[in-house]
Write a structure and sequence with these properties.
By secondary structure, the chain is an alpha/beta fold. Helices cover about 35% and strands about 20% of the residues. It has helices at about 1-5, 25-30, 45-55, 70, 75-80, 95-110, 140-145, 195-200, 220-230, 250-255, 270-280, 285-300, 315-325, 375-390, 405-420; strands spanning about 35-40, 60, 85, 110-125, 150-155, 160-165, 175, 180-190, 210-215, 335-345, 355-360, 365, 370, 400, 420-425. A hairpin with a 2-residue loop joins strand 5 (about 150-155) and strand 6 (about 160-165). The longest helix has 18 residues, at about 375-390. It is globular and about 70 Å long. The mean pLDDT is about 95. It comes from Heracleum sosnowskyi. Keywords: Membrane, NADP, Oxidoreductase, Transmembrane, Transmembrane helix. This is Alpha-aminoadipic semialdehyde synthase. One of its GO terms (molecular function) is saccharopine dehydrogenase activity.
């Protein structure tokens, strides 16, 4: 509520209010007073809000994926004459807009998309990547870790590749963006890429369809090793059940199977942890064990401090420490990188054309306060969607994604006008 009140200062006709969206009467009361609703709540609440919007014939914009429960509201929304514009954020959102602009333009020239690859990552800016993971959280560590353990599917040279969730971190590969060669990045496959073949109308022409998540190089090997140690196990751990609270060091020794509890000394802690990780066969290289040990120490997962009672699993404990230790200071910036690569064949025998589009954006520091790039690149597209609906620029009703020219053309213009640098290259 305090943040909401601060945000609306100086904005006419703005009111801050706090409501329970599951209270239908209160929700409908507020929805009835506006022309467009923007929901940035967790996705599980969007259907409740959408039904209120349909009932009261008000447009809705969200930045979340359109799932089956939202798709089922397509006909009711059309009957109400309203637009529910979903996936209007960064990823999904700006990625759709840039991809469809490139694909539609290629198709208009008679081209055939033979390869579509897309990469996106929210990262610390280089100067803020000052920990062993080279990563910080601008959103929930629990959500980020769960996302990093989802299975993935993609198509590579007409071969469908499946990656199990448990193997996702280990599937990370080094990646360089031609237009940003200074960044040492790696890429992890991102969920089911094949659905984008149908969504973008290239499923029958592209032999490669791949979507990936970007991290700084080395992230996957450390997180994969931590997963094998057991730091991301969600079951209740015996030593964390009710009773005397163990220390972080106690849990670490349990996970490293040190029955004697004398593995970790006081003078060579990093070496002791790394040696144990490597001896247990939890990683292939001793360098990886050392980098993982550095991460464990940085997070304080070896310290003789009691674990809070709220932590019932190793996963809870790890997330708690990450929320404490992997956060941005008030003067640190995050960074967003979005990159598409298309390979296009033309029927008249022209040489294959390669096209690239890149968005590189940093958080903004103003008056000693940082607004994250993640917030801007998710929030501003949603705001643009609301403006387009208010101006009646979007005519299509029902459930809509920003994959159509009536949405992406004006939206990309707005984004550029706001200062986002959307770089496009051919070569």
């Amino acid at each position: 509520m305090k943040d909401a009140e601060e945000i609306i200062k100086g904005i006419p006709n703005a009111t801050a209010a706090q409501i329970d969206v599951m209270d239908s009467e209160s929700l409908c009361n507020y929805v009835s007073q506006v022309d467009v609703v923007i929901s940035l709540l967790p996705p599980s609440f969007h259907c409740t809000i959408a039904k209120a919007c349909i009932k009261l014939k008000k447009h809705l914009v969200t930045a979340s994926y359109v799932d089956d429960s939202m798709s089922n509201l397509d006909e009711p929304a059309k009957d109400a004459g309203i637009t529910i514009l979903g996936e209007m954020g960064l990823d999904p959102g700006i990625d759709h807009m840039l991809a469809m602009k490139m694909i539609d333009e290629a198709h208009a020239r008679g081209g055939r998309i033979t390869s579509f690859t897309s990469y996106c990552g929210g990262l610390p800016s280089p100067e803020a990547a000052n920990n062993p993971l080279a990563y910080k959280f601008s959103w929930s560590p629990a959500g980020a870790i769960r996302a990093g353990r989802n299975p993935a599917t993609y198509r590579l040279q007409d071969e469908v590749v499946h990656v199990n969730g448990d193997d996702l971190y280990d599937s990370a590969t080094k990646f360089r963006i031609p237009d940003l060669p200074a960044f040492a990045l790696e890429c992890l496959p991102n969920r089911n890429s094949l659905v984008y073949g149908d969504l973008y109308g290239i499923g029958n022409e592209a032999s490669t369809i791949f979507r990936g998540t970007l991290r700084y190089e080395g992230f996957g090997e450390i997180m994969g090793t931590m997963a094998r140690i057991g730091f991301f196990e969600t079951h209740v751990h015996p030593i964390l059940e009710n009773g005397k609270r163990p220390t972080y060091k106690n849990l670490l020794l349990e996970l490293l199977k040190d029955e004697e509890k004398n593995l970790i000394g006081t003078t060579h802690v990093e070496e002791d942890i790394a040696r144990r990780i490597f001896s247990l066969g939890l990683c292939k290289e001793h360098g990886t064990a050392t980098r993982t040990a550095k991460t464990i120490i940085f997070l304080g997962l070896n310290e003789p401090e009691e674990i809070p009672a709220s932590c019932q699993s190793a996963f809870d404990t790890t997330c708690f420490r990450m929320e404490e230790r992997l956060v941005y200071s008030s003067t640190e910036r995050d960074m967003v990188i979005l990159h598409h690569e298309l390979e296009i064949n033309f029927p008249d025998g022209q040489a294959t054309e390669n096209q690239r589009a890149t968005l590189l954006d940093y958080g903004r520091i103003k008056n000693g306060k940082t607004t994250t790039s993640m917030a801007l690149t998710v929030g501003i597209p949603a705001a643009i969607g609301a403006l387009l609906l208010l101006a009646k620029k979007i005519k299509t009703t029902g459930i809509l994604r920003p994959i159509y020219p009536e949405v992406y053309e004006p939206a990309l213009e707005h984004l550029r006008a706001y200062g986002f640098k959307l770089q496009e290259e051919t070569g």
